[in-house]
Amino acid sequence: MNLKSLVLWVACALLTTSTALAQTEARRPHKAPEEKAAAMTQRMTRELTLTPDQQTRVGELNNKLVTDLTALRADNPTPADKAQKADRRAKMQAIRADYDAKLKSTISADQYSLYETKRAEQKGKMKERRQGRNKQ
What we know:
The protein has five helices and no strands. The protein is mostly helical. Helix 2 runs antiparallel to helix 3 (about 50-75) and helix 3 (about 50-75) packs antiparallel against helix 4. The longest helix has 27 residues, at about 110-135. The model has no long low-confidence stretch (mean pLDDT about 85).
């Protein structure tokens, strides 16, 4: 093996290593369920101008939502077949529907309308990100 080959191998190794490190550093660490719920409550307080009483009740609802969804994901992290996937999806939708019903009774109609608008915007942004990721 000559010097030119050795330099080429070292360069390839460095490029591969730096690319791998860049990919792992770009990922954000997962937040604990309590942190997610607190962040949701803070954002909703800011966007919907919740009263202190509403903040408390919405915080409890957010804690329950995040805890239930986290537990469901932990029980079945990667569904093996379509039936399991559909069952998990149905359970998540039921949890979300229960959350939405309780939230609707907790906040005013105007606040709930604004909440739905913001949620639709978030879904649109997420859809755009997924489409952009699939194009690459």
